[in-house]
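User: Can you model how fe (ii) ion sits in this protein?
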Amino acid sequence: MFVQWSPLYSVGIDELDDQHRQIIDMINLLHEALPKRDSAAEIRQVLVRLVEYTQKHFSAEERYLQQLHYPALETQREEHRELVRDLREILLRLKRGEDISVRKLLAFLKNWWITHIEREDLKYASWVRRHRSELSPRT
Ligand SMILES: [Fe+2]
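Assistant: Here's the modeled complex, given as structure tokens:
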């Protein structure tokens, strides 16, 4: 497997962990399509799905963090915006018929997600853990 999800990446929120796993699955699909003959259409299809799903995930994550008044939300938003912009640019280049290096794209995606989860997402995970008692209504 090209990228493997690990419990160490868990942000402690099932829905968001699940979305991270789905994204990793799609990156692995992209990786598996690589050695196939005539894989261009398949690669494009997976990539379109990956971009759509990534945007859906970022919205869910940002909505969640906003509800909790997470103080570093802007850093999250900034990184998310940058990735979406880069991915859209790549899709556009594919649409125009330009050749892109899928190998480089895969290395970039793997590095982006692992770094982002480890550096930014785990930061909100521990913030949420520390503030959970104040955040949830006491009964
Ligand atoms: Fe994030």
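A couple of observations from the model: The pocket of fe (ii) ion is lined by residues 61, 76, 80, 116, 120-121 (CB under 6 Å). The domain at 13-133 is CATH 1.20.120.50 (Four Helix Bundle (Hemerythrin (Met), subunit A)).
User: Helpful, thanks.
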